[in-house]
Amino acid sequence: MSLVLLLCSAGEAVPRVWAEPHASTADAQAEWEGLYAKAQACYERERYAEGVTAADAALALAEEQFGSVHEQTAASLHQRGLLYAAQGQFEQAKALYQRALTIDEKTLGQSHPHVAKILDSLAQVYHAQGQDDEALSLYHRAKRLTEDALGRRHPDVATSLYHMAVTFHAQDFYAEAASLYEQAIEIWSESIGLAHRDGAGALAGLGRLYAIQHRFTEAEPLLRRALSTREQLFGLIHPAVAQSMEDLATLYEKRGQYSEAASWSKRALDVREPLLGRDNPALVGALSGLAELYLRQHQYTVAESLYRRGLAIREHALGPDHQDVIASLEALIVLYGAQGQLDKEEPLYVRAASVAEKTLGLRHPTTIALLERYEYLLRDLGKMEQAKAVGQKIGQIRSGRIR
């Protein structure tokens, strides 16, 4: 007889089957299973702080009750690694994955499907660190092990296919990525469905890829379904929900439907604000994206307010001379240029060039480009003497006479 623990994540679609414990360890077994299940549910819903607490407790209990070389200990190490990786702590995740892999290969054998799961997780870390060749090698190995043990149409095979698709997508190998996304979606649709984080990720990934390829009619239902799935999984206020809304905004922007794009971009901003805080510099990208959509519709006043809000956030959070301020100043320059308000561009060029000189240096390409554009502006304004002086400065920088 055995106890079966059904896990919450699509990546853990195979039930882990634990040997029936002796009566003396039954309570510890039940407690560990409860902690493990809670941590897994939190991971699936991206509630990482709660997940870490439960996973740490499960790992400590497993090592104390079952020993350092035991299947439950390996499972807890793997789970804690997933939580590290989800928060960008890749070296810590890698170390735990390798420990878990060593244990499972020793206790279960090198061809066990649990070994394949750890290989898949390890591959994700390599991909996140830009080591895609290593990642793809591990993904292929994990896929082969899973197919041999569980069959070619098993949900865990779809997980490996999805992660391989993400890697190819990041490398701009769109045909390969599309095929892998499609295979993963087909397998999941036949088995556990798509109402899980990886399922939503595959829908979103394929939708974004179709949008890049201008296959808009095919992209839209995928992106809308990804949004609906993420709202059901995570609630209305969540980074993944905002990302899906931004994906739809990008789709409509590519189609030239700027009003619809702005509507989705505004909704995404409304989701990100309570998550990040109104004065967080991480919000500036969303503000700028929305401003650009209003700019395309010639709604200059609204666009200006958004660009200036982004500038104010950066100045307050990072300081008036931070290099990120340059991008906000340049956005305002483009806005005023679109309106033919050249006089408003001049002080912005002066300040942007000054910040660039301080933060990047005189010889940096950004600094030189700003000075060149400033020179052209001065000529357009009829300020020939000032333009000549800026031109001479550029020449001296290029020749090395000014450093």
Please outline what is shown here.
The chain has 403 residues and is an all-alpha fold. 76% of the residues lie in helices and 2% in strands.
Structure description:
It is a single chain. This protein is mostly helical and 403 residues long. It has a domain at 1-108: Serine Threonine Protein Phosphatase 5, Tetratricopeptide repeat (Alpha Horseshoe), CATH 1.25.40.10. Helices cover 76% and strands 2% of the residues. It has helices spanning 26-44, 48-65, 71-86, 90-107, 113-128, 132-150, 155-170, 174-190, 197-212, 216-234, 239-254, 258-276, 284-296, 300-318, 324-338, 342-359, 365-380, 384-399; strands spanning 2-5, 16-19. Helix 9 runs parallel beside helix 11 (239-254). The model is unreliable at 1-23 (pLDDT under 50).
Low-confidence stretches: 1-23
Q: How large a portion of the residues is in β-strands, by DSSP E?
A: under 5%
Number of strands: 2
Q: Per CATH, what is the topology of the domain at 1-108?
A: Serine Threonine Protein Phosphatase 5, Tetratricopeptide repeat
Q: What is the H/E order?
A: EEHHHHHHHHHHHHHHHHHH
CATH architecture of the domain at 1-108: Alpha Horseshoe
Helical region count?
18
Q: How does the major sheet shape up? A: 2 strands, antiparallel
| Rounded average pLDDT | 92
CATH superfamily placement of the domain at 1-108: Tetratricopeptide repeat domain
- Structure classification: mainly alpha
